[in-house]
Amino acid sequence: MFGSLGITELILILAIVLIIFGAGKLPQLGEGIGKAIKGFKKSAHEADGIEAEAQATQQMAAAPQQAIPEPTVQTPASVDQPAATVHSVSRG
């Protein structure tokens, strides 16, 4: 898994990390590394999605565009309600 690193080398590295960071900081260190790996994987997947979206946009731009009819808005022929009156109040 780790290439040419044997069990003694891994134990030595773990001992050095324990001495440098202490036992209390190891969970925080592991959590930080885990979040970094998770963020890297997420950004790699997002980059693939963005790339696929860009290719789809290019394909759509290359295809001839069809005219899309504009929607029409229908208004009522008559309004049954009278216009509202506005009363101004003067304070003085």
Summarize the structure.
This protein is an all-alpha fold and 92 residues long. The protein has helices at residues 7-21, 26-62.
Mind explaining what this structure looks like?
It is built from 2 helices and no strands. It has helices at residues 7-21, 26-62. The longest helix is centred in the middle third of the chain and has 37 residues, at 26-62.
> What composes the largest sheet?
none
Order of helices and strands: HH
| Shape category | elongated
What's the β-strand tally? 0
Coarse structural class: mainly alpha
Mean pLDDT: 76
Task: Provide the low-confidence segments as ranges.
Answer: none
Secondary structure elements and pairings:
Blueprint: H1 7-21, H2 26-62
What labels describe this entry?
92 residues; mainly alpha
